[in-house]
Amino acid sequence: MTIGPSSFDLGTYMAERARAVDEALGRFLPAESAPPETLHKAMRYSVFAGGKRLRPVLVVAGAEAVGGGMDDVMPTACAVEMIHTYSLIHDDLPAMDNDDFRRGSPTNHKVFGEALAILAGDALLTLAFRLLADNVPAGSSASRLHDVLVEIADAAGSSGMVGGQVADIECEGKRADGQVVDYIHTHKTAALIRASIRSGAILAGATPPQLEALGAAGDALGLAFQIMDDILDVTATSEELGNPAVHGIEVSRRRAQALVADAHAALESFGPRALPLRALGTFFIERKA
Ligand code: GRG
Q: What pLDDT score was predicted for residue 270?
């Protein structure tokens, strides 16, 4: 699909890329019939449980922003979705959020038991790094692979998503101030969103200034996404508790809008190639679920 100002439609763009990601995930994941079957069933169960494929689409959009293409970054796009899926499986466990349902279906541990759910998450995280290790586009240098591995490891580990999750757990039941809430948001959610965009761009040969601009856009988009997610949680359950209560829903919404405007500004110099990233930002602040 060509990306031009008059032809761009985010729904079609997301659907096309999500379909390609689904097809690739199907190929990269071990078959359910391969031993240990229960483990592979558990991995596939959560990967194919109806996620929006936002992060892999952001990997592709990051590559496209600097002139790259989807096929060159597909293993990395799938790796990021596997890391996201592992985090959701573990987040639902009794030791964490203790959720019985996700996306309207029983959570992984409800279907496969706690031990298998832990191990399915572990195996998805490990497989993700195996996929990243293999994703060296033709003609590109090993230093790009190194940079992507560092980018994703930092975003997923104790300095990123896992660190944010720990901060979230440690402030449970306490009144968190705005700074702590921001720390949780930027680490638990925004770090992987930023790394998704930048990893696609790194593989596609982005220059340092381009990566800096995409990092700024990724920070803003990631934070806006989480702020809107909290607003949607509160408006869906009508509970005036939790993180959004700290900022107030309307203040939060305005902040998310301002962040998306910042992201749009950071993406200005990329021209029409960054239309998908800009449209995804608008989608974040307008989405209803
Ligand atoms: C357990 C290591 C570990 C980390 C957990 C990601 C996370 C950290 C917890 C999940 C709970 C949560 C509300 C996280 C915030 C990020 C977020 C909004 C996740 C949902 O992302 P979507 O909307 O999910 O992209 P889908 O279902 O579309 O894949």
A: 98
